Amino acid sequence: SMEEAMRVLEELSQDERPEILYAVIHAAGRLFTSKTEVRSRIIKLLDRFLPNQDPTVRYAISMVMAFNMRELSLSEIRQFHSKALPYFYDADEKHNGIIHNLMYVTAYWVKVDPEVTLDFLKNWVKHHPKGKPINFSDRFLHTINELKQHCPIGLEKEVINWLLDDNKHVIHAARKSIL
């Protein structure tokens, strides 16, 4: 039963091993197609994993955000993403899977509420580790193309702000996004 599945997931979520947490998050994401009353329990379960810095756990959360929330209402998606996205501002670009999933998430928001995408991209660039250039345009190419198509003025304003920033990495990202 659904109640039994939730009980097992909640019990397993106490485990600290990333591979177990990955399985819990993956299974929880697949349960979003179920009844509405279960969804709030799933979201509450996923909320507990947001601060976890382990790449395996972060990858699982990004997968759920990108591919398993289609059954939710826009307000449910917005509520979870608004809590979750700030935890990914510092997502290292060497974690291809996480960045790829974030590209899908941000591209989704371009058509729904481009400010969510622009805010995430700005913060991702600003939180990126200092001292190395950002491979921004490659990592978020689909998102940038969606912004160019659906929200060119918003992208232009953001790029201008980035070009005026004191951080050379932010300026580099701005240049890459307009080329």
Task: Please summarize what this structure is.
The chain has 11 helices and no strands.
**What value does the Rg take, in angstroms?**
17 Å
Could you tell me the number of beta strands?
A: 0
Which structural class do the helices and strands define?
A: mainly alpha
Mean pLDDT: 87
Shape: elongated
How much of the sequence lies in strands comes to under 5%
The percent of residues in helical segments reads over 70%
Give the N-terminus to C-terminus distance in angstroms.
53 Å
Number of helices: 11
Largest sheet: none
User: Which regions contain 5 or more consecutive residues with pLDDT less than 50?
Assistant: none
Order of secondary-structure elements: HHHHHHHHHHH
Describe this structure in words.
- The protein is elongated, with a radius of gyration of 17 Å.
- The chain starts with a helix and ends with a helix.
- The longest helix is centred in the middle third of the chain and has 17 residues, at 96-112.
- The protein has 11 helices and no strands.
- With 179 residues, the protein is mostly helical.
- It has helices at residues 2-12, 18-30, 36-47, 55-67, 74-84, 96-112, 114-127, 136-139, 141-150, 152-163, 168-178.
Topology of helices and strands:
Blueprint: H1 2-12, H2 18-30, H3 36-47, H4 55-67, H5 74-84, H6 96-112, H7 114-127, H8 136-139, H9 141-150, H10 152-163, H11 168-178
Helix pairs in contact: 1-2, 1-3, 2-4, 4-6, 6-7, 6-9, 7-10, 9-10, 10-11
Please supply descriptive tags for the structure shown above.
about 180 residues; mainly alpha; 11 helices; elongated
